[in-house]
């Protein structure tokens, strides 16, 4: 890919590759594919020239060894790259100006300093540098070479850097509140007491092997079938998810992934006002995916899949053991003890497909879980180190937008919005989203005791109504209904989106971060499928102003009845910081579910295998 562009477009050493991705063929071609058919192998790269900061998109036909298109994209900033992250840290750490300003603060051992570069939203950038690829940096000091890099923020000091030239444009020396004596270490060797020894081994053993098969990237398990993919931006992607219902292969979803993540810090103070991370669009969840290790990240009989990404020179790099496939026992699937004392119990087994991403101080652990009863669960665990800030004096209280977590140290409130993109195909592409609200019927002659509970079903007819909000009062949920297919009782087959861990944006619509990501203003969006509509906060959210993404896509008010629909579910962590999240945050777990609703003719797991405990009976 890179060599073809270097040869045909004179991509020289001053260029960098922001991304390389295989272009997914159109849905119709993928669905028509049978083994043995040739598939086009095209890749798309986003590159920019560091000399003039111009961005190009290049499409290459790998089989034909030729460039298909080469397009200048004006006024955009491609995602930042992991290479730049390291380059900035290295370059600024030896910069005389940085060394000087730190020595004035009593910091002289530069090997203990971490320089953490962040991106900007355009309106928050210094006006004179808005035409540059601009980074701003936090500085942190480790107490020791193996100490927590994020325990000691160097307050009131930001470095503004031109990412193309690594030129230090400004040292913003706003204030110095010193380095409070905090209890910030998490490695047992640096703590007293360190590590307890009161856990006995817990082994997950599957002596006869696992119950799933992986053939290439196709995973089959307990009636489920799907393909597992990966790219620089979304990380893991799941494709062509179907359920074998008594011999009939039934579609559930065409493609599921995370399309954006927006993390606005909700503290207006100097140290945090520019902190609005778009971790997927500005950096790429795939680039930040970390290798998993057996017995630590995943327990039991594990199958790993490697991922291949590119570095900023366009060279391939492999993330070993990037994705993890395994089965888990999850207590009881269904059970009944009959009056005569006999019992039927089925253990619940679930298939977990997961990956972990480390986004500087934070980690996101992503789990898609498939269940024998047709349920799909999407879970995210947020863990890692919170951003903290020192207070000016011992007598200061934490500001209203943060929680005191240690001596003279507070953690600002922030939110992690995750946008899950789900191209559902419930029994095929023709689907309609129906909003379901529950309410109590008024007391009447027919309802004398006021017991009647009823549901109201509202089809979402077109994209002018694309943004939907959760409603606690009505226990709102959504169904993706196939109007062309019925179950044995005559109702339309459907999958239900059971909302979980959704929260309002709580942002003024005129605020810069909201304008860049109005997708966070609703909890569910529904759009008509369009392969060009992938990134709900815009194709290029780095240094963006707004006006891109989902709110532009819905302007044509496309029909949504009996259409190929894409759902965008917005959930995450509304992080009102806790003292217990310090100095290392125990996983905060958030999730939502997709559940069959009249998709099957009855409980599809009645025929799930009985457990066979050795020498014992469940009866
Ligand atoms: Cu958080």
CATH homologous superfamily classification of the largest domain: Copper amine oxidase, catalytic domain
Q: How much strand?
A: 35-45%
Report the C-alpha radius of gyration, rounded.
Answer: 26 Å
Q: Let me know the average pLDDT.
A: 96
Query: Can you tell me the CATH architecture of the largest domain?
Result: Distorted Sandwich
The helix fraction, in percent, is: under 10%
Low-confidence stretches: none
* Bound ligand species: copper (II) ion
Question: How many structural domains can be distinguished in the coordinates?
Answer: 3
Largest sheet: 10 strands, antiparallel
- Quick one: overall form? globular
Class by alpha and beta content: mainly beta
Q: How many helices in DSSP terms? A: 7
Query: How many β-strand stretches?
Result: 31
Distance between the ends: 61 Å
* Level-1 CATH class name of the largest domain: Mainly Beta
Q: The CATH topology of the largest domain is what? A: Beta-galactosidase, Chain A, domain 5
Topology, element by element:
Elements: H1 2-8, E1 15-22, H2 27-32, E2 42-49, E3 54-61, E4 66-73, H3 82-93, H4 96-104, E5 113-118, E6 134-141, E7 157-162, E8 167-173, E9 213-215, E10 218-221, E11 224-231, E12 235-245, E13 248-264, E14 276-278, H5 279-283, E15 303-310, E16 316-337, E17 343-359, E18 362-371, E19 376-384, E20 389-390, E21 402-406, E22 409-412, E23 414-424, E24 432-440, E25 453-459, E26 467-468, E27 477-486, E28 492-498, H6 512-516, E29 524-528, H7 550-553, E30 565-575, E31 585-596
Antiparallel strand pairs: 1-2, 2-3, 3-4, 5-6, 6-7, 7-8, 9-10, 10-11, 11-12, 12-13, 13-14, 13-23, 15-16, 16-17, 17-18, 18-19, 19-31, 20-22, 21-22, 23-30, 24-25, 24-27, 26-29, 27-28, 28-31, 29-30
The structure holds copper (II) ion.
